[in-house]
Amino acid sequence: MDELKSLRDSLDRIDRSLIELIAERFRITGEVGQLKKRMNLPSTDRERERLQMERISALAEEYGLDPQIARSVLRLLIDEAVRNHNRIKEG
Amino acid sequence: MDELKSLRDSLDRIDRSLIELIAERFRITGEVGQLKKRMNLPSTDRERERLQMERISALAEEYGLDPQIARSVLRLLIDEAVRNHNRIKEG
Description:
Oligomer: homodimer
Shape of chain A: elongated
Largest interface: A-B, 48 and 47 residues
Number of strands of chain A: 0
Number of domains of chain A: 1
Largest sheet of chain A: none
Order of helices and strands of chain A: HHH
Distance between the termini of chain A: 52 Å
Strand content of chain A: under 5%
Number of helices of chain A: 3
C-alpha cells in the first residue's frame, strides 16, 4: 500500500500544478477578453480554435497522450474562456 | 494585434505544459492500474475520488480559479484513468 500512497502523492502534486496552470491560463484569456472588447473583436475565433485543436493533438502525440483526451480538456477550457469573453463584452 | 499575438503565444506555452503534465498523470495512473491489478483492488475508489474533488476545489479557490472548472477537468481525467484501469484488469 506504500507504493499506492506514493503514486497518489505524485498525482496530487501533478494536480496542484495543473490547477496552477489552468488558473494562469484563465488570467491570460481574461486579458484576451479585455483586448477583444477594446478592439471590438468577436469572442470566438474559429480559425484560431482549429489551429489550437490541431496543435494540441500534435502535442498529445508527442507526449504519448491520447489526443482525444487532450482535445476534450482544451475544449472545456476554450468554451469557458469564450463564455468569459462574452461576460466581459456585456459587462 | 501584437498584444493579442503575445497573449496567444503565452497560452500556447501553457497548453504545452498542460499536455506534458496530463501525459505524466496518465503514466502514473497507468502504474496505479498495474498495482491495483496485482493487489486485486477495484478500479474505482469512491472515497479517494471524494477527497480528490474536495482537494481540487480548495486548490482552485487558492489559485483564484472557478472550482467548477477544476472539478470538470479532474472528472474527465479520473473517468479516463478508471477506463484504463478496467482495460488493464481485463488485459
